[in-house]
Amino acid sequence: MLAASGAALTLALAACTSKDPLAQQANAGDNKNYIAGDGSVTEYAAAVRTAPVDFTGKLFDGATVDAANFPGGVTILNFWYAACAPCRLEAPDLQALYTEFSAQGVKFYGVNVRDEKATAEAFERNFKLTYPSIIDKDGGVLLALSKVVPPQAVPTTLVLDKQGRVSARILGTAEKGTLKALITSALAEQ
User: At 148, is the pLDDT very low, low, confident or very high (cuts 50, 70, 90)?
Assistant: First the structure.
């Protein structure tokens, strides 16, 4: 009797989700009801940049990241989550840029705004990402950065200068050549 009840419940739930428009939309991956960035790039002149970013966060491995340690080098923050189609699109380019620039001291951090640890780690394995990600399901990092420059969409990529200030923001998919130029520019600053 218990097995029959469980089977009936499974069938009922499957029937509900197959007709659920939100589930169908999520499976379609067409980004409806999704605030996608348009790929616009904003660069901030050194003279008008705000104070260094200020936040702490936990990485998926349990380590703590403190933005107070960012000054001295260029840092890239990429806001993402696993089901975000543009995040999937840009992931290989972010990894390639991390590989290219890490020897020059450029730090990369993903800022995962939605996923549980297992989902985020599966995404990182799938795309062979080797830079760490901050858990931000509570929105603490997002809120702290909104005081400086609002990310406004996922994905958003921020380039922090050697003083820990936002020097550039990309809303939407970070094109590899564009992000490379922004990193190179930030590295060249005194």
Answer: confident
